[in-house]
Amino acid sequence: ICASTMDELISGMYKDKIYKKFIIDCRSTNEFKGGHIKGAKNISDKEIIDQELFSPDMTAIATKRLECRKRILLIFHCEFSAMRGPNMATYVRERDQELHSTEGLLYKEIYILDGGYAKY
């Protein structure tokens, strides 16, 4: 996903199509404190990402999107979106497949911010 599309999402341009968006900043806490994208959550630990995205509450939210025919987006990034962000996105995709292989994925749309926070 490019920076301009990210700005459009943050501004609410696609709110009629998007049920929920999660901007996940995989940088360190200090990097995040030094500046971050509006609305981003700082998560760099797999245990925490499991708690955040695969809890019963989140499963209910992700299932509700099916009823209203809207989309849930996960957008991952790190400083340059070269390692930490893409690695976490891959982990989430694999975990989702592991947990929901028979009934379908909770998170069908997983994106990486092009160029990361540095380019944004």
Number of H/I helices: 6
Helix proportion:
40-55%
Task: Give me the secondary-structure category.
Answer: alpha/beta
Distance between the termini: 11 Å
Order of helices and strands: HEHEHHEHEH
Overall geometric form: globular
Mean pLDDT: 94
- Strand order, main sheet: write it out: 2-1-3-4
Tally of structural domains: 1
CATH fold description? Oxidized Rhodanese, domain 1
Largest sheet: 4 strands, parallel
Oligomer: single chain
Q: What would CATH call the architecture?
A: 3-Layer(aba) Sandwich
Instruction: Indicate the proportion of strand residues.
Output: 15-25%
Spell out the CATH superfamily. Answer: Rhodanese-like domain
Return residue spans where pLDDT drops below 50 for at least 5 consecutive residues: none
Number of strands: 4
In short:
Belongs to the MPI phosphatase family. The protein is α/β, with parallel strands linked by helices and 120 residues long. The protein has helices at 3-11, 29-33, 46-53, 56-68, 84-100, 116-119; strands at residues 18-25, 40-42, 71-77, 109-112.
Provide the fold topology.
Elements: H1 3-11, E1 18-25, H2 29-33, E2 40-42, H3 46-53, H4 56-68, E3 71-77, H5 84-100, E4 109-112, H6 116-119
Parallel strand pairs: 1-2, 1-3, 3-4
Helix pairs in contact: 3-5
